[in-house]
Amino acid sequence: MPRASSTITGFVCSLIAIGSGCATPPVTVPGLALRKVVIYRNGVGYFERGGRVQSDSVQFKVRKDEVGDFLATLAIVLSIPLAITFLQTGLVPRFPTAILATGLMILAALSFFTGLILDTVVRGRRETRRLHYLSFPAPGAE
Q1: Would the pTM count as exceeding 0.85?
Q2: N-to-C CA span, the chain
Q3: Angle in degrees, 0-180, between the axes of helices 2-19 and 67-89, rounded to the nearest 10
Q4: What is the pLDDT of residues 27-41, one digit of tens each?
Q5: CA 64 – CA 42 distance, rounded (Å)
Q6: Domain boundaries in the chain?
Q7: SS3 for 112-140, per residue?
Q8: Which CA distances in Å does 41 have to 35, 76, 106?
Q9: Half-sphere exposure (CA, 13 Å, Cβ side) for 25?
């Protein structure tokens, strides 16, 4: 059980670090004490929290715009122990976990590119509406 709880703790820490950007309000997590804060020169911060999970399942609430980050973080957290085991032994004993991590990273990439395409479409449509609005003459100017 220690491996599972440390993996979940690392995942929660990574998720909290992703969700705490400059434009977002501070994250308050009851029951997870703040262990470490690192702020880099470019303003990106890393906040590490840790705690113990007492149940059989863990639920995460993720905003729509952070689903790709969530999936990528989950894939990385799952693949780190696999990479360490592979470097030590040359074997991948948990092959289903490797497949899961690969699938999650593919889903994260698809989510990122889908969001990028949709954002581009929205910006284009806004610009088209703005240009259409500007084609009308100003009131009182003839």
Answers
A1: no
A2: 78
A3: 140
A4: 666 667 778 888 888
A5: 26
A6: 1-60, 62-136
A7: HHHHHHHHHHHHHHHHHHHHHHHCCCCCC
A8: 20, 24, 31
A9: 2
